[in-house]
Amino acid sequence: MTPSTPATIWFLNGPNANLYGLDANKTYGAESFPALRERCEKKAASLNLQLHFVQSNHEGQLIDWIQEARGDAQGIIINAAGLTYSSIPILDALLAFPGRIIEVHMSNIWRREAFRHHSYISKAADGVIAGLGGEGYELAIEAMSRLIARPA
């Protein structure tokens, strides 16, 4: 990767993230998932990052993407959603990833139900951003840009 070649990052979103903006309780804000994706793509482009922004409701698909990212990505940003609290297989896949990892959540998981206070994903993450809604997604991209620019 030369200075002019964009670094590649994957932004993985777990179950039900595609429903952002449709929640009557607005736990995850009013912004739709397509609008959030567009916001993240603009942020990544402004930082000269190539962004793969994807969402799946299936644990195995998320694991496949983590493994695929091993081939070309310098970093993974992940909101595993409900799988954050239960997926050891996602943790194992992340632990095998050689690049940087940031965990992100739209809501503040520590202000919610007690079962959300433990994250398996955090064990693999360089950092965690939670509770800032869509702005947290942009901050995660900015933080990832800085992390991957640092010498190993």
Report on this model:
The chain is 33% helix and 19% strand. The protein contains 4 helices and 5 strands; from the N terminus they run E-H-E-H-E-H-E-E-H. Strands 2-1-3-4-5 form a 5-stranded parallel β-sheet, sandwiched between helices. Strand 3, helix 3 and strand 4 form a beta-alpha-beta unit. Helix 1 runs parallel beside helix 4 and helix 2 packs parallel to helix 3. The mean pLDDT is 89.
Radius of gyration: 14 Å
Mean pLDDT: 89
The proportion of strand residues reads 15-25%
Spatial strand arrangement across the major sheet: 2-1-3-4-5
Terminal Cα separation, in Å?
14 Å
SSE succession: EHEHEHEEH
Q: What is the helix tally? A: 4
Helical fraction equals: 25-40%
Major sheet size, sense and barrel closure:
5 strands, parallel
Topology at a glance:
Blueprint: E1 7-13, H1 33-46, E2 49-55, H2 59-69, E3 75-79, H3 88-95, E4 100-105, E5 127-130, H4 133-149
Parallel strand pairs: 1-2, 1-3, 3-4, 4-5
Relevant terms:
single chain, 152 residues, alpha/beta, five-stranded parallel sheet, 4 helices, 19% strand, amino-acid biosynthesis, aromatic amino acid biosynthesis, 3-dehydroquinate dehydratase
Compact overview of the structure:
By secondary structure, this protein is of the alpha/beta class. Helix content is 33%, strand content 19%.
